[in-house]
Each structure stands twice: as C-alpha cells, then as structure tokens.
Design a protein that fits this description.
152 residues; 13% helix; binds coenzyme A
Length: 152
C-alpha cells in the first residue's frame, strides 16, 4: 500500500487561447438613455443573435424621439446616413440607446445614436454595440416639410 508521503501530484494548468474581447466600457454618466429595453428570443436572426433590423428599429425610434422633441412636431425619417454594427447583441442584454441632435437644418434634423449592451448586469460588462446617424424631417399637419424653430 502506498504511503501518502510518497504520492506526488502533477498539476496541469490548461491554457486556453485568449479570445479578443470587445472593449468593455461604461454607460455614459452625463445623460439619460433615450430608450432602454431587453431583446427577446423572438427578436433573433437565424444564427441566434439579435436581428439587425430589430436594432435599427430601436435606433430609429430613439432618434425620432429627440428629433421630434427638438422640432416640437412630428418627424419622419428621410435618411439613414451611417449605421455601424460593431458588436452583436444577445437575448437578455440590457440595451440602451442614447440619441442626440447634432445638426438642425431648415426642416431637417440630424441625430447621432449610440447603443450600449449590458451583457451581465452583475459583472457590469457593458459594450458599445452600434452607432448610427439618421436624418429626420419636421412635418406640418399636412405632412409637408416644416421649418424647425431656431430656438432650443
Ligand atoms: C421626408 C419627406 C417629407 C421630404 O420631402 P421632400 O419634398 O423631399 O422635402 P425636401 O426636398 O424639401 O427636403 C426636406 C429636408 O430633408 C433633407 N433631405 C432630403 N433628402 C435627404 C437625404 N437623402 N439625406 C439627408 N437629408 C435629406 C433636405 O436637405 C431638407 O433639409 P433642410 O430643409 O434642412 O435643408 C418625403 O421625402 C417623405 O415623406 N418621405 C417618406 C418618409 C417616410 O415614410 N419615412 C419612413 C417612416 S418614418
């Protein structure tokens, strides 16, 4: 029978290749999200990630809120100038859209939207997943472009 003092242990440390991690960040502290929501399984694409069209829809809604508030009237989306999907969004992420009017034209307003996903609230892992620039047009009650007041 082996004496316990004669037993030697070999410790094997398994090293897994380091996967490139998206840059963790923090939610902006100096402003409130325009909208915040959690995608559901029905919002996924065939691969199981959140469908890009779902994200575009939320971004468009967030942009229209700040554009409409600034124009003090209803707006329609006339153009999506830029849309960048930097990282995927997953079911259960807490998705926050931060929208800001960055330009006011005669009847149009350009809005920059940043989207953050909190993957794990307990670990506070937050990732910027999307950014977009969209243009809205202020409309009068006849549905025609209407000048945006210059005051804020
Ligand atoms: C938006 C709409 C009312 C504009 O009508 P229009 O007769 O083309 O209006 P104008 O040519 O006078 O353009 C209005 C403004 O939009 C801007 N604009 C028009 N096309 C643009 C484009 N591709 N990119 C950025 N801005 C654009 C113009 O520069 C102008 O801005 P300004 O007044 O600040 O200079 C009309 O195109 C429309 O109803 N589109 C459908 C909107 C829609 O259904 N959206 C999806 C659902 S919300």
């Amino acid at each position: 029978m082996a004496n316990l003092n004669d037993v030697h242990y070999t410790v094997i440390v398994a090293t897994t290749p380091v996967q490139p991690m998206p840059d963790a960040t923090q939610l902006p502290h100096d402003r409130h999200p325009t909208i915040r929501l959690i995608p559901m399984p029905a919002d996924t694409n065939a691969a199981g990630d959140i469908f890009g069209g779902w994200i575009m829809s939320q971004v468009d809604i967030a942009g229209s809120i700040v554009a409409s508030r600034r124009a003090k009237t209803r707006v329609v989306t006339v153009a999506v100038n830029e849309f960048l999907f930097r990282e995927p969004v997953f079911v259960g992420d807490i998705v926050s859209c931060y929208a800001e009017v960055i330009r006011v034209g005669r009847t149009s307003l350009t809005v920059f939207v940043e989207v953050y996903a909190e993957r794990n609230v307990h670990a506070e892992l937050c990732i910027k997943v999307t950014q977009a620039t969209l243009t809205y047009v202020a409309l009068d009650k006849h549905g025609k472009p209407r000048p945006v007041a210059t005051d804020t």
